[in-house]
Amino acid sequence: MPEEFLQYIWQNRLFTTNQLQTVEGDRLEIIDQGRKNTNSGPDFFNAKIKLNETTWAGNIEIHKAASDWHKHDHTNNKAYDNVILHVVETADTSIARSNGEIVPTLILSYPEQLKHNYQNLINAQTWIACENQFHKIDPILLQLGFNRLMIDRLETKTQAIVELLEQNNNNWEETFFQLLARMFGFKVNAVPFELLAKSLSIKTLLKHKNSLFQLEALLFGNSGLLNQQLLGDEYYLRLRDEYSFLYKKYNLKGIEGHLWKFMRLRPPNFPTIRISQLAALIYQSEGLFSKIMDIESTEKLKQLFKVKASEYWDTHYNFNKASKNTQAKELGDTAAHILIINVIVPFLFVYGEKQNKPHLKNRALGFLENLPAESNSVISKWAKLGVQARSAFDSQALLQLKNYYCESKKCLNCQLGVKLVSSI
């Protein structure tokens, strides 16, 4: 069995404890199995055992085979000198500390059923490892785990924001703009949108916040989408002329137009439409960053994102090619929800953490509870298993469970997996 499984058995004290004896023949009592170490060094620290009549306090190291101690070169590592017990599945050799002292070894014994339960999960080929056993799990257990899963997901997202913030020398406004722009590309055009935002400072854009036309000229110009041809319709040529002036004024350097993806996208999601909507958001929202920090309700946030592409795009999806249908290209509710869930919530959470404003962190979680659950294939499959997401808070937790735990079969780190493995 993998070391991870043996560590799980040890951590949860599922091993046989009656009449324990070390390989060396000493009577053994486990007073405290210690606390799992998530950093480098021995697997468990602050353990306490009794060997014969002597009580020892120190660390525990766990291996599949005792010889792994030598493979990992622990003998010459003084960090392992305070190991008081070596716990193994197979005792194929004796091991010692750097000073030559023998480390007591225990062969771990546990119910065979636990191994069988674990192997059933790891070898499963279903959508999630426990799919065929899911009916055995109390739904309340899953609901109780949502909070931890949500914090897990936020920590993953916020780490990326923290790294971006460091790249921007702790400029919150620039970092927020780059994150927002990336999400305007959703999955397909996230990267070119992020590159566009990094090529064009929000400070430059805000100098032209009173002119939607100039904002579009800057964004479309730096996107590379105005370099496609020399000729075009009137609006296209006006944008090119305006960008030519602004390009020289700010010494701009744009990105390549070929980075943008149009194929397999519904026309309302074309990057041309999204860029125009981003320009409209900057144009319509005075002090966007500070406004986001002040808004307390999801309804007001959704209203903030009620923006539409400029009039030219009422009759176009691409430059220089009019469409048959005429309609305003407004950012819909679903898109607004995605932006709130993936931009506003994690950013507000980080800002609240860094600025020591816990009410902002609570507000971020409140936004998730007040938004409807997301609709996608993962959430639909959870529903088939009887798990209903009541809000975006729940759907985000379920996405984290599937993507982080189930995909990697981290069953021993999951409350549901632990429950199934431990059942006898």
Automatic annotation (TrEMBL):
Organism domain of life: Bacteria
Name the record gives this protein: DUF2851 domain-containing protein
Source species: Draconibacterium orientale
